[in-house]
Design goal:
InterPro entries: ABC_MlaD, Mce/MlaD, MlaD_Phospholipid_Transporter. The chain is α/β, with parallel strands linked by helices. It folds into two domains: about 30 residues; about 110 residues, no CATH class. The protein contains two helices and eight strands; from the N terminus they run H-E-E-E-E-E-E-E-E-H. The protein has an eight-stranded mixed beta sheet, with no helix packed on it. A hairpin with a 6-residue loop joins strand 3 and strand 4. The longest helix has 27 residues. The radius of gyration is 23 Å and the shape is extended. The termini are far apart.
Length: about 160
């Protein structure tokens, strides 16, 4: 009888731990039941480094997350849908860009508010976008321009 009780308690503890991990994973991935947000759309040339659940930040503070990514077959751009917390009203001339947390850090979506008096309504599109910049292509440009300078010589 005592053996069954200890097995039951051990099973309950394992089940509680599993539920805790599932809830934690849902929060980290941005899967919440929070209805206090509204959607906005943006179209990027490149969305390398971001995925559904990526943070959306304003002045370094998380204000939402990426809720959808899809390829637009007409423009060949990536259409992104983001959710932004209620109460944060963005001007219509705001910009959205994909930023990096550092040299080895991940990417996130950054909102840069504009100065217009009108604000974006739910479902509207942010027109001013800047896609992700590939660190490897930047390094290749730097190395390539350095090689050209050494071939030409100084003063040419």
């Amino acid at each position: 009888m005592a053996e069954n009780r200890s097995e039951l308690l051990a099973g309950a503890a394992v089940l509680a731990a599993a539920i805790g991990f599932i809830v934690y994973a849902g929060q980290v991935a941005g899967i919440t039941r929070d209805s206090g947000s509204y959607p906005l759309k943006a179209s990027f040339r490149s969305v390398d480094g971001i995925s559904v659940g990526t943070d959306v930040r304003l002045a370094g503070v998380k204000v939402g997350s990426v809720t959808g990514l899809a390829l637009n077959p007409q423009t060949y751009f990536a259409d992104a849908t983001i959710s932004v917390k209620q109460g944060i009203e963005l001007p219509t001339d705001s910009a959205i860009l994909i930023s990096s947390e550092g040299l080895l850090g991940g990417n996130y979506v950054e909102l840069v508010p504009g100065g217009a008096l009108e604000t974006l309504a739910a479902g509207e599109e942010i027109e001013d976008t800047q896609g992700s910049v590939s660190l490897i292509s930047l390094l290749m440009k730097f190395v390539g321009s350095g090689a050209e300078d050494t071939v030409k010589g100084p003063g040419e």
